[in-house]
Amino acid sequence: MIHRRTRFSIAIVVIVLLLLAAAIYLRKEAPPEAARLLPESDGIVYINLRPLRSAMHLEQHPVTHSPEYQKFIDATGIEFERDLDDAAFALHRMPDPHGPNGAVAFSEVFVGHFDGRRLAPYLASLATSQEVYAGHTIYNIPSEGRTVRVVLLGYDIVAVSNTPSPEQIHSMIDRYRTAALPFAGSSLLSKHYAQVPLLSIAWGIGQIALPLGKAGGVRVMGLRIPVPVEATLIASLTWVGHVHLRVEEIAPTERSAADTTESLQTVLTLIKSMENSGVIQPTDQQTRALVNSISIERNGERAILTATIPTSLLQHWLASPEDIRATPLPGAETQEQPKQNASPPAPPASRNQAPQSASTHNPAHRPQP
User: Fold this and answer.
1) CA 68 to chain centre
2) Total-model pTM
3) What DSSP designation does 326 have?
4) Stretch among 46-50, 120-124, 149-153, 219-223 having the lowest mean pLDDT
5) CB 83 within 8 A of CB 113
6) Which residues pair with 43 in a beta bridge?
7) Would you list the DSSP string of 106-133?
8) Among residues 86, 73, 81, which one has the least CA distance to residue 31?
9) Per-residue pLDDT tens digits for 3-44
10) φ, ψ for residue 130 (rounded to 5)?
11) Which of these, 39, 102, 132, 273, has the minimum number of CB atoms within 10 Å of its CB?
């Protein structure tokens, strides 16, 4: 009898360990659902705000709302900085960088909690037309010479796209049907997500150098950092008591990786020398600690930058007193007050205090808003 109980206890322990190992494997290999819903693209950025909001105590740092933003909150009950759980963004390079979308168009998925009875009428009031696709209503909202398409996929998910054609928004609706499959998603996720560090609260992958500059690079303090258009970038923020930043460039050649590494090291050396000479002064000890934590190295065709962001510094950034310049949905704007610039708009949140909302959503059962 004792031996039988012992074997039973050992079997339970083994099963628990196997389930834990499977959960860790799925977490490492399977992208989050918001990212899996995105269409094919050149780059993906994902943000999980739930652990960040808890760790940073963001509820203790209220943000001043602009009048336009407050009108949106009053109409929908959605408060971006409070209600967004996680979000994923797809970047689509445009063949004509001088077109309405500029160099890049965006497709986005926002996860939170909605009150569809309030949000749907609000979107309908902005839309000039609507389309029903696979049982979902797509709201076509004009914005700066292009059309922003918005669809409520369920009580906790909104999808948005400002691409020239409806192909991307249709793709997200189609992917929504198979969202319960842990390895569904775009080819970009299938190829590179396994290289994203475990427990990352934010990450980005893809060939997204083009938005950084016309020549596939970016300038820092007058120095150009070459980022080839064909290079793949994998960036991540990981919470380990502090925020660990890692940016990895997978260059097409070792020479390209060496060029990037040398340029970054030159910029870092310049910043530190100016700091030591008193030409520039970091605003506080946290900023100085961030600069001193930066490390740059090369491993074959990979250039890698790592840094530690102090918690207090991140809290300061997130608690900036500046008004949030936000629109109802990315690219969407009220017809009374159109925006004057063509820069990509700030992402909204998509969580509401709806009675039917749940803190976690079940991909296998999705009520419609």
Assistant:
1) 24
2) 0.74
3) B
4) 219-223
5) yes
6) 91, 206
7) EEEEEES---HHHHHHHHHHH-SEEEEE
8) 86
9) 666 766 777 777 777 766 655 555 556 789 999 999 999 999
10) -135, 155
11) 132
Q: Identify the DSSP state of 363.
A: T
Residue among 262, 261, 268, 333 at smallest CA distance from 304:
261
- The first and second tokens of residue 309, run together, are 């962001």
Could you list the beta-strand ranges (E) of the chain.
Answer: 43-48, 86-93, 104-111, 129-133, 136-143, 146-154, 157-161, 200-206, 217-220, 223-226, 232-239, 243-250, 295-299, 302-309
- Please tell me the distance from the alpha carbon of residue 45 to that of residue 37, in angstroms, as a whole number: 13
Radius of gyration of the chain (CA): 23
**Rounded to 5°, angle at Cα 152 from 149 and 155:** 165
DSSP string over 143-193: ETTEEEEEEEEETTEEEEE-SSSTHHHHHHHHHHHTTTSTT-S-HHHHHHG
| Residue whose structure tokens are 């948005």 | 160
| Terminal-residue alpha carbon distance, the chain | 55
- How far, in Å, are 39, 133, 142, 145 from residue 164 at the CA level? 14, 17, 12, 10
* C-alpha to C-alpha distance for 53 and 74, rounded to whole angstroms: 23
Residue 288, amino acid: R
Structure tokens at 238: 């990981």
Read off φ and ψ for residue 311, nearest 5 degrees. Answer: -60, -45
Looking at the DSSP bridge assignments, the partners of residue 92 are: 105
Place of tokens 């977490």: 27
Q: What is the pLDDT of residues 143-168, one digit of tens each?
A: 988 999 999 998 889 999 999 999 99
Q: Which of 158, 133, 171, 193 is nearest to 40 (CA)?
A: 171
How high is the pLDDT of residue 357?
33
